[in-house]
Design goal:
mainly alpha, 3 helices, 0% strand
C-alpha cells in the first residue's frame, strides 16, 4: 500500500525498472519463443500490474482489479485505499 508521495515515487521508479526488464525479455525471447518469454517475463508482468494497481489506488484514478482486491496476487493491501478528496461533492475537501 502506498501511503505518501515519497512511496509513490519509489513505486513509480520500480515500475519503470520492471518495464525495462520486460522490454529486455520481449526483444530477446518473444521473436524466437513465446513460451519462454511467458516463462521468464510472466512474474514481471504480474508485478507490473500490481504496482500499477497500487499507483492507481493511491491516486484514486480507478477501481482496483478484482484479482488484486481478492488478494490473489497483490503483495500490498490496495483494496483499502481511498481517494484523498470527497469526489461525491466535487468540493475537493479532504475526507
Amino acid at each position: 500500500m502506498i501511503r505518501n508521495d515519497a512511496e509513490l515515487e519509489l513505486v513509480r521508479q520500480n515500475l519503470a525498472n520492471i518495464e525495462a526488464a520486460i522490454e529486455w525479455w520481449r526483444q530477446r525471447l518473444l521473436p524466437h519463443n513465446e513460451q519462454n518469454f511467458n516463462l521468464y517475463a510472466g512474474a514481471l508482468l504480474d508485478f507490473r500490474d500490481e504496482f500499477q494497481a497500487d499507483i492507481d489506488a493511491y491516486l484514486g484514478t480507478m477501481t482496483v482489479p478484482a484479482k488484486h482486491a481478492a488478494g490473489k496476487t497483490a503483495p500490498t493491501d490496495t483494496k483499502t485505499l481511498q481517494p484523498t478528496r470527497d469526489d461525491r461533492t466535487g468540493s475537493g475537501q479532504v475526507t
